[in-house]
Amino acid sequence: MVFPNQDESYSKAVRVLSRGLTLIRAFCPRNRPLNNGELSVATGLTRPTVSRITATLTRTGYLDYLPNQARYRLGEAALALGFGALSGQDIRLRARERLQRFADREDLLVVLGTRDEMTMVCHEVCRGRGALTIRVGAGSRLLLPYSAMGRAWINSLPLSARHTLLDEIESTFPGQNLRAAIDEADEQIRKLGFCVTFSSLEPDVNSVATMVDHEHAPDQYVLGCSVPAFRYPPDRCREELGPRLLELRHAIEQDLQP
Amino acid sequence: MRRPKFQTRQDDLPANLTSQIDSLQRGLEVLRCFRSTDTALELAEVANRMGLSKLTTLRLLETLEQHGFVLRLKGTDKFVLHVACLIVGQAVLGSSVIVKAGSPLLKPFVDRWGGQAMVCVQERLEMLVLSQATAHGVTSSGLGVGMRIPLINTAMGHAWLWSQPSQIQTTWIDRMRSDHKGQGAMLSNLYRSFQSLEEKRVCQTFSPERPDLIYMASPVNLPNGVIAVVGCVHSQSVNYIEKESEQLRNCAIALTQLAFQLQDEASRVRIPNAAAPHKQLSHKPK
User: ipTM beyond 0.85?
Assistant: First the structure.
């Protein structure tokens, strides 16, 4: 369908919505109260623009105004913006039971996440008793190029998008020489179906990750698990943990079949 | 026939701003028009639900897609909700006093009484589920966190309305009378709920969509002045025997206790950097 991006009213309408969405996302992930000035800095929008948008969003209930701080935060009505409809059919909920059983049985931490900007957001986190010290919880953000989940996600990209992203990674993390590690992850995924990192994000924590195929969210969800390195040295990660994670992935994909 | 699903309050805005504000509200309404039973929505269906042209709807959807709120399925005109909806929802839940106070109370409740328990707040014409727990082995009623329950014909909505000042009650009841002419049963059910709430501070209705499900609800006065509602959902067996009825009566009493517990707990819970909101959600039906 032709998209008439030359049209002025179109541009205005899209711009206003786009700014509103940017402002809503400025409160994520912790919903920290922010005033118009702070929102202006966080979003790059002018204060008058921020002021107009916060007024609209407050009137519609999506923002709460905190009078004692003279700040705003997301109101409970913002939960109605797709969360309920999505979470009911979201694979997180449908996979949760399997994830917890896997975490208990293998005594590790297992995560289902998606990419957001230069991070992987951990949506569902289940941990066994032996993984209590690994500092990851629901909502945690793992740096994209350092995490096994991030590298698995990068592997799923089409070639052109991958080149663009790798350039962005180089400018965001200068001098880190991450390309070699990402290429190695590609090679692992090609051969084994999963990739492994060793003490990459956190010292003495090893991780394994693989993509989950979901008809309605292709190339979006990544399944990962993390273990203390002393229990799972590199060989065990490759030979035991990776294949078990693939089994879990296949079981989840089976569950998601219509 | 196309029917606009949103209303704007534009009287106080300069004319050149109203169209811009419209596009923000419309874009957010697009997210609301997805239902939990929709796996993916065609552009035409979204346009129909919104009462907008396909072109305008496409503009909104493409902007939402750029910000990660929807995803267009490859090679199709179909859209699904996407990760930003989860991120925004999680931010709301993580900072909600009601969720923090209510969630630890719901699990022991369903462990004892079975079924499903939830905490809701009013949002427009519906009750929005903020937190819920389902007893082990019970099939979910489909009322998950973030889902919306109709206000006018459910126990959750009745419990909220009962807690409102009479002026607000009258506005709602007048609206029910005009919108549901000839459906006297709806009003009788509401008055029955009000009577039950006066006597026992708890009310009961059947699910509007699934008559085999019983809804029970009790209001909670939160310290910041917001009225929340604790509710529970039970499946009614075909043979509605006396023993089961006794169980439901006891569960109703426990629900009122749960409401007081939540009230108490909410006054103790502290969320970092959070404070009481300035105002409640809009109470008037639009």
Answer: no
